[in-house]
């Protein structure tokens, strides 16, 4: 919705408007991000007074394109250094280009040959707005790009703004935290070369009063799988801006003459339906505009890692496949240890050919056996890594990230390949393409088990580009493999949940949420994950009890019911499961297959009542409730669990008991779960809306 005479535009979504204007100084200002406005209402924003400021101090930051310039003392989302040392920008507005579902603002520097394009994209079926920057050097001398954030979001003034973020570490990813935003700059991000376990590139801002079901929430997510940074800045009068982009200090990228730099997408969302409403909007956006095969329900996979680790033969894998198929699993994934000299974690990474001792006839017999059982076959790879004890490293020791006169620090006895090098990227693609072409592999678990260290590129003209080009080349390899092998499906793994973001999800079908498969711990991990990412992409395993990591003993039903909240998988050592556990596991797998379309493709609602928590999924006439309680205090009976999103005038039949409930009663009073009084009780309940 343009207003050319006033240089004001609105990016409209089904329920919201994001209104920007170019002011008399050619600065792009954010005027409104909230409920949808008419053209007349949007124009009235120009009549509002300026935010208060004192001339010596400067204005509060409310610019949609936060370019480094005079009086911009806070965070600047766009910073460059020209060849003569000049750092400030003086951008001149050139034009606004409208297209179907998009708007692009073009600026040029008043003196230097730098062109900046700020892009906005909206979708007719989503309140998510996508943004990115394109920088082009139209001259001949290089320009150093110090900072190029994809978006700076201007949030309306709030009395007590609160920040929601996801923090963690290995085995404790996506822990949700909500804190009052302090004055000044709050910076979160990753300097590790990968999205990271420690933080996730998603944040939300609310006024301190939002709940799961109501209240205003603004959130943003960066679609990038390398190093990144999000800066949340609160000014003296409470205004908040959120700036998100790739990279970290102190790296900078050289932009040569005629070169273009495109930033990753930063997506933003406003809702007045609380945190659960925001999460649902992100999930719907994921299914509609991010993942490659949104209508597919993910198969139940079995992964062999926790059963065998490195100690197995082809025959061992076949016996595990027999048990997995008997339980009802649909995809058998052979994990680490099948290639090169890989009998432990000290050798073989980089040599992606079958271990001749374990697979003297290649992978063919195992794959044929798995396919004969009616399952698909998947395999684990870690292409970005190399062991020093490998044929690849002995041939190309210069292919890893390293710096002159510095040690090459190892993690898990491995180093990181310099994927920013085009020859390395071509080699990795060629090896994987050959592996997939020579074998009927249906699924790849793509792992990445360590961050960058000594991240250098001796002899490179612009060594800092490795922080950007590594991820770009990773994306290019995945895109090529998917194009050449269209039936291939891919899971992103990074020592658990170290690479979960919308960038990798555009090229993969699911992600591995965490190496921690303890069902009780997973409840918190999965709750944080669900703030931005849909159940359709959340890998969740049922493993042995006591849990291999935490040593906590948890009943089989509890383990299954927690894992059913995402993409169910089995990762235990089925060779030691009793006949009773095998039989019950098969029943629970069958249960999940019935509810899978509702869980993976439906709308999610978090549930909580006292010590009982869970999730509800709804799609069409089906409602699924997964609920759990770790312990019951003082023998109090469990409370009823209030459901959400139901038609109050409709009736719903409990498929378990045949009892019919009124939607209004389920919403206002709740559902009786009938949990066992013992610790670690859980339930799966299917409700069907009656005609």
Automatic annotation (TrEMBL):
Domain named Glycosyl hydrolase family 36 N-terminal is located at 28-255
Q: Is Hydrolase included in the keywords of this UniProt record?
A: yes
Q: Which residues form the Glycosyl hydrolase family 36 C-terminal domain?
A: 616-687
User: Which molecular function term from Gene Ontology is one that the record holds?
Assistant: alpha-galactosidase activity
- Record has Hydrolase as a keyword: yes
Can you tell me which residues form the catalytic site? 447 (nucleophile), 515 (proton donor)
Q: Which SUPFAM superfamilies match?
A: (Trans)glycosidases (SSF51445)
- EC numbers for this chain: 3.2.1.22
Per the record, what are the reactions this protein catalyses?
Answer: Hydrolysis of terminal, non-reducing alpha-D-galactose residues in alpha-D-galactosides, including galactose oligosaccharides, galactomannans and galactolipids
Q: Where does substrate bind?
A: 170, 335-336, 412, 445-449, 493, 515
Superkingdom to which the source organism belongs: Bacteria
Q: Which GO terms describe its biological process?
A: carbohydrate catabolic process
Keyword terms, alphabetized:
Glycosidase, Hydrolase
In this record, what's one Pfam family?
Answer: Glyco_hydro_36C
Report the sequence similarity comment from the record: Belongs to the glycosyl hydrolase.
UniProt-recorded name of the protein: Alpha-galactosidase
The organism of origin for this protein: Glycomyces lechevalierae
């Amino acid at each position: 919705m343009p207003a050319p005479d006033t240089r004001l535009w609105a990016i409209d979504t089904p329920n919201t408007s994001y209104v920007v204007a170019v002011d008399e100084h050619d600065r792009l200002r954010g005027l409104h991000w909230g409920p949808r406005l008419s053209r007349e209402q949007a124009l009235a924003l120009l009549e509002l007074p300026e935010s208060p400021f004192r001339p010596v101090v400067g204005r509060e930051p409310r610019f949609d394109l936060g370019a480094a310039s005079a009086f911009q003392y806070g965070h600047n989302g766009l910073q460059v250094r020209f060849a003569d040392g000049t750092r400030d920008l003086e951008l001149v507005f050139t034009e606004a280009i409208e297209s179907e579902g998009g708007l692009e603002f073009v600026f040029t520097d008043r003196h230097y040959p730098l062109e900046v394009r700020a892009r906005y994209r909206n979708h007719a079926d989503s309140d998510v707005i996508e943004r990115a920057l394109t920088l082009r050097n139209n001259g001949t001398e290089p320009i150093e790009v110090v900072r190029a954030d994809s978006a700076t979001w201007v949030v309306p003034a709030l009395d007590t703004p609160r920040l929601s973020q996801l923090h963690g570490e290995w085995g404790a990813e996506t822990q949700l935290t909500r804190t009052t935003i302090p004055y000044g700059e709050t910076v979160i991000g990753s300097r590790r070369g990968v999205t990271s376990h420690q933080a996730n590139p998603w944040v939300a801002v609310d006024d301190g009063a939002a709940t799961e079901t109501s209240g205003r929430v603004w959130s943003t997510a960066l679609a990038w799988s390398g190093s990144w940074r999000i800066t949340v800045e609160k000014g003296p009068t409470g205004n908040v801006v959120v700036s998100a982009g790739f990279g970290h200090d102190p790296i900078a990228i050289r932009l040569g003459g005629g070169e273009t730099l495109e930033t990753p997408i930063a997506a933003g969302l406003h809702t007045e339906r609380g945190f659960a409403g925001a999460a649902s909007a992100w999930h719907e956006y994921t299914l509609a505009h991010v993942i490659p095969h949104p209508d597919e329900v993910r198969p139940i996979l079995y992964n062999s890692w926790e059963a065998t680790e490195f100690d197995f033969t082809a025959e061992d894998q076949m016996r595990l496949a027999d048990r997995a198929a008997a339980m009802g699993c649909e995809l058998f994934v052979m994990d680490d240890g099948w290639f090169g000299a890989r009998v432990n974690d000290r050798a073989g990474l980089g040599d992606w050919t079958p271990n001749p001792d374990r697979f003297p006839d290649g992978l063919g017999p195992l794959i044929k056996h798995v396919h004969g059982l009616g399952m698909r076959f998947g395999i684990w790879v870690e292409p970005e890594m190399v062991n020093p004890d490998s044929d690849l490293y002995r041939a190309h020791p210069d292919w890893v990230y390293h710096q002159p006169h510095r040690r090459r620090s190892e993690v898990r006895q491995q180093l990181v390949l310099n994927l920013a090098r085009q020859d390395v990227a071509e080699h990795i693609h060629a090896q994987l393409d050959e592996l997939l072409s020579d074998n009927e592999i249906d699924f790849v678990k793509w792992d990445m088990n360590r961050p960058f260290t000594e991240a250098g590129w001796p002899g490179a003209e612009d060594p800092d580009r490795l922080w950007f080009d590594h991820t770009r080349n990773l994306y290019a390899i995945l895109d090529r493999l998917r194009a050449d092998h269209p039936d291939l499906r891919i899971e992103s793994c990074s020592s658990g949940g170290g690479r979960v973001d919308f960038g990798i999800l555009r090229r993969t079908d699911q992600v591995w949420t965490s190496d921690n498969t303890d069902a009780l711990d997973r409840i918190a991990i999965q709750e944080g994950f669900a703030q931005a990412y849909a159940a359709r992409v959340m890998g969740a395993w049922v493993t042995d009890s006591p849990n291999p990591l935490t040593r906590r003993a948890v009943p089989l039903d509890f383990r299954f019911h927690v894992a059913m909240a995402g993409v169910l998988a089995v990762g235990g050592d089925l060779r030691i499961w009793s006949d009773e556990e095998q039989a019950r596991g098969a029943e629970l797998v069958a249960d999940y297959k019935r509810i899978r379309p509702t869980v993976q493709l439906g709308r999610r609602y978090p549930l909580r009542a006292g010590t009982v928590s869970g999730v509800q999924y709804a799609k069409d006439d089906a409602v699924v409730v997964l609920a759990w309680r770790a312990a019951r205090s003082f023998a109090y009976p469990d409370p009823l669990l209030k459901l959400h999103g139901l038609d109050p005038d409709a009736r719903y039949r409990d498929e378990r008991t045949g009892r019919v409930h009124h939607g209004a009663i389920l919403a206002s009073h709740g559902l009786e779960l009938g949990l066992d009084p013992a610790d670690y009780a859980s339930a799966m309940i299917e409700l069907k809306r009656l005609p």
